[in-house]
Design goal:
Strands 2-1-9-8-7-6-5 form a 7-stranded antiparallel beta sheet, with helices on both faces. The longest helix is centred in the N-terminal third of the chain and has 29 residues. Helices cover 31% and strands 15% of the residues. By secondary structure, it is an alpha+beta fold. Helix 1 packs antiparallel against helix 8, helix 2 packs parallel to helix 4 and helix 2 packs across helix 5.
Length: 353
C-alpha cells in the first residue's frame, strides 16, 4: 500500500512539474509576464502561480497576487441577483424601471420593457459602454439603446451597471458591501473586492501591453460590477465551484445558471458554425464541448485577460488569470493542457467577435 501511494505521489509530482514547464513556455511564447491557474476536480484543487508581477523586475507573482478580474465580476453580480430573486426582492421579468429610475437612460421606445433577465443574458439591446467607463464623463453620459430589447445578443457592461444600481436601491447597500455580504464573506474570498484595499499594495500585479511592457496598477475607488473586481484565481475558483454546486441558491434558481435562456445570436452578425455550440444562461455563457456541456466566461480589461471553464457533470473547473494583453492567446493551450486535447469552442467564438 505504501509503495502504491508513493508511486501515485511521484506521478502527481511529475505531472505537476510538466504542467509548470508547459505554462512557463506559454508565457514566454506569448509575452505574458505572469499567470495564476487553479484546476479543480471533485473539490480537490491544484494551483499554479508563475512569472512576474511586473516585467523586468524580480517581483515574483504568487498565489496571493491581486489581479484585475475584469468582466468575471459580472458573474458575481448575476449570482447575487439570483440570491435576491430567491428572497423575493427581485423579479427577473419585471421591468427594471419599475424599481427605480435610471437617470442616464434616454427616453426611447422599449426601455420600459428591459428586465433583469434581459440584462443577465445580454439581450437588453444596450451597448457595451456608452463611452469609456474610466472617464469622468461616463458617469453622466447618455445611455441609448443600440438594438431592440430582447431581439438579439449584444454584450453589455452598461446593462450590468444598471442592474448593480437596481440591487443597491433594493438593498440600501453599496455594491461592494453587498458583494462582501453575499459572496466574498461566505465563500472566504479574502483577497477579493470591487474597490482597492490597502492590503493590495503589497502584492498587486501590474497590467502589461502586447509587448510585455508594464502599464499600471489600477486602484479602483468605486465599485463597478462590469470591470472593477480585484481578486486571485484561488478566490475566484472558490466562487466557480460554488456556482456548480448551487451554493446559496434554491434548486430551481440554480438551474438558471445551467440552462439556456438565450441562443446568444449576436446582433448584426450572420450565424457561424460556432454559434450552434454557444448559448447564454442567467449570467454565464454555456458551451457544448467535446467533453460535454460547460459554463464559461471571460474577463478583459485590455492589459489583463482572464477565463474560466466549468464542467457540471464532471465537477471539474479551471480558472486562469493573466496579467498581459496577450493572455487570451494562451488560454486555449491551457485548456488543452488540463482538460486534455479537445474542442472547447468558447475562445473560437470570442475570436469571431
Amino acid at each position: 500500500m505504501r509503495i502504491l501511494l508513493a508511486a501515485v505521489l511521484l506521478f502527481l509530482s511529475l505531472t505537476t512539474t510538466a504542467q509548470q514547464q508547459e505554462l512557463a513556455t506559454l508565457l514566454k511564447r506569448e509575452k505574458v509576464p505572469g499567470l495564476q491557474v487553479v484546476y479543480s476536480k471533485n473539490g480537490k484543487s491544484t494551483a499554479y502561480a508563475l512569472g512576474q508581477r511586473k516585467s523586468g523586475t524580480p517581483q515574483a507573482l504568487t498565489g496571493k497576487t491581486t489581479f484585475q478580474a475584469a468582466s468575471l465580476g459580472k458573474v458575481v453580480l448575476a449570482y447575487v441577483a439570483l440570491r435576491l430573486h430567491d428572497r423575493g426582492m427581485l423579479a427577473l421579468d419585471k421591468p427594471l424601471l419599475s424599481y427605480a429610475p435610471y437617470p442616464r437612460l434616454a427616453v426611447q421606445p422599449g426601455v420600459d420593457k428591459i428586465t433583469a433577465r434581459m440584462v443577465l443574458t445580454h439581450s437588453a439591446g444596450l451597448p457595451n459602454w456608452a463611452e469609456n467607463p474610466l472617464a469622468d464623463s461616463w458617469k453622466t453620459s447618455v445611455l441609448r439603446l443600440k438594438y431592440a430589447p430582447d431581439s438579439c445578443w449584444n454584450y453589455s457592461g452598461e446593462g450590468y451597471v444598471w442592474l448593480q444600481k437596481t440591487l443597491e436601491h433594493l438593498t440600501g447597500k453599496s455594491w461592494e458591501a453587498l458583494a462582501q455580504q453575499e459572496v466574498f464573506g461566505p465563500l472566504k474570498m479574502r483577497h477579493s473586492s470591487y474597490v482597492w484595499q490597502p492590503g493590495f499594495d503589497k502584492n498587486a500585479s501590474f497590467g502589461h501591453d502586447n509587448t510585455g511592457k508594464a502599464t499600471e496598477v489600477r486602484r479602483f475607488a468605486e465599485p463597478n460590477a462590469g470591470f472593477s473586481l480585484l481578486s486571485t484565481a484561488d478566490d475566484y475558483s472558490r466562487f466557480v465551484q460554488a456556482l456548480l454546486a448551487g451554493t446559496g441558491l434554491q434548486p430551481a434558481t440554480h438551474q438558471l445558471l445551467l440552462r439556456p435562456a438565450s441562443e446568444a445570436n449576436r446582433c448584426g452578425r450572420a450565424l457561424t458554425p460556432t454559434d450552434a455550440h454557444i448559448a447564454w444562461a442567467c449570467g454565464v455563457g454555456l458551451v457544448t464541448t467535446s467533453r460535454g456541456p460547460a459554463l464559461w466566461h471571460w474577463g478583459d480589461n485590455g492589459d489583463f485577460k482572464n477565463f474560466f471553464l466549468a464542467f457540471p457533470e464532471q465537477q471539474e473547473t479551471l480558472v486562469l488569470f493573466t496579467n498581459g494583453a496577450n493572455g487570451q492567446r494562451l488560454t486555449n493551450d491551457v485548456l488543452q493542457l488540463f482538460f486534455r486535447p479537445g474542442e472547447y469552442r468558447a475562445l473560437q467564438w470570442l475570436a469571431e467577435e
